[in-house]
Amino acid sequence: MTLYADLHRHLGGALHPRIIYKFLQRHDHPVLGYFPDYEGFYSWFTRRCRTLEEFVKIHTLVEELQSLEHLPYFCVRLCRGAYMFENLQYLELRYNPYFRTDKTLSMQKRIGQMKLIVEVITENLRPAEYPIVVKQIICLDRRLPQNLNEAILKVAIDNIGPVVGIDLAGPEINDHKFETWIKFMAKARAAGLKTTCHLGETGIDNVHEQYFAVLDRIGHGIHIPLMKPDLLKELAKRQITLEVCPTSYCQTGVLNDLGDLRTVFERCRKAGVSIAVCTDNPGRNPSPCTLPGEYERLIDHDVIDFGELKQIQNEAFRSAFGFVGGGRG
Ligand SMILES: [Zn+2]
């Protein structure tokens, strides 16, 4: 059996819509007023969006369901599914702890609650029956004020071990603030965390070369080979891996067709830039969306050929932040 590693998956988008729907039914959630049957919910939840902003709105709904009390329910289910249905040996799961705190509390209390959120997630990502290793990446967010992002970084540093890295997420806004984010990444690295950033997903404006000095990987980054291929040399030199999540780009309106990724893979191959194929938000994609399925779709669309499969799979393990034998020291 081939085993896989997924390095880019959001806790808010990792769950099968059926699991979310059952949860809503169990709690008689008001959103069911719009979706009396599962089919309606499924089409809404997995529909293609025109923009990343539109996509993120549904994501927010799920984040709110994943409260302290209910996180164990979601964590256990996503681990067992990843092992049983996707043959994942290793998973890096990313999330913003602040978005899972109790919204009725003051900001100070919510900041305090983040510690518990990380602890509960850590506790529930160790399913005894399933030999999958799950490590955490904590997300900063472009929409949050600096003091909150500082607090998020602190909780990540305090939990090094189960937490292996830091990410910058949220829609690609405020690109002029890049120096702030670079400082965050440098601080995270100095504290012993690995770093990745959502960059170059929807366009090229957010991609500043200065980021490359503080990043181990880039979340997506597909617009670098598409629009600024001259930067690839620098990525290769610094051994920065791109986390490429094929179906996700069709769901967020970034690409029309998976075939558009041919240029991305060709240019990276030529420049010696590594790619790890990942899933991003598999629960939000039309079923069944699994990591092995993503590989198969890339072959179907002539983006990669079968002969490259093993090497690309190995790349994910090699670029992992917390896999023994992975990472780049
Ligand atoms: Zn992502």
| Strand percentage | 5-15%
Report the C-alpha radius of gyration, rounded: 19 Å
Helix fraction bin: 40-55%
- Unreliable residue stretches: none
Tally of alpha and pi helices: 13
Domains (count): 1
The CATH class designation is: Alpha Beta
Structural class label: alpha/beta
Provide the CATH superfamily: Metal-dependent hydrolases
CATH topology-level name: TIM Barrel
Strand order of the largest sheet: 1-2-3-4-5-6-7-8
H/E element sequence: EHHHHEHEHEHEEHHEHHEHH
> What is the 3D shape?
globular
Mean pLDDT: 93
Can you characterise this structure?
- It is a single chain.
- With about 325 residues, the chain is α/β, with parallel strands linked by helices.
- The protein has one domain (about 5-320): Metal-dependent hydrolases (TIM Barrel), CATH 3.20.20.140.
- Helix content is about 45%, strand content about 15%.
- It contains 13 helices and 8 strands.
- The protein has helices spanning about 15-25, 40-45, 50-65, 70-85, 105-125, 145-160, 180-190, 225, 230-235, 245-250, 260-270, 290-300, 310-320; strands spanning about 5-10, 90-95, 135-140, 165-170, 195-200, 215-220, 240-245, 275.
- An 8-stranded parallel β-sheet has the order 1-2-3-4-5-6-7-8.
- Helix 7 (about 180-190) links the parallel strand 4 (about 165-170) and strand 5.
- The longest helix has 18 residues, at about 105-125.
- The mean pLDDT is about 95.
- The site of zinc ion (ZN) has 5 residues, from strand 1.
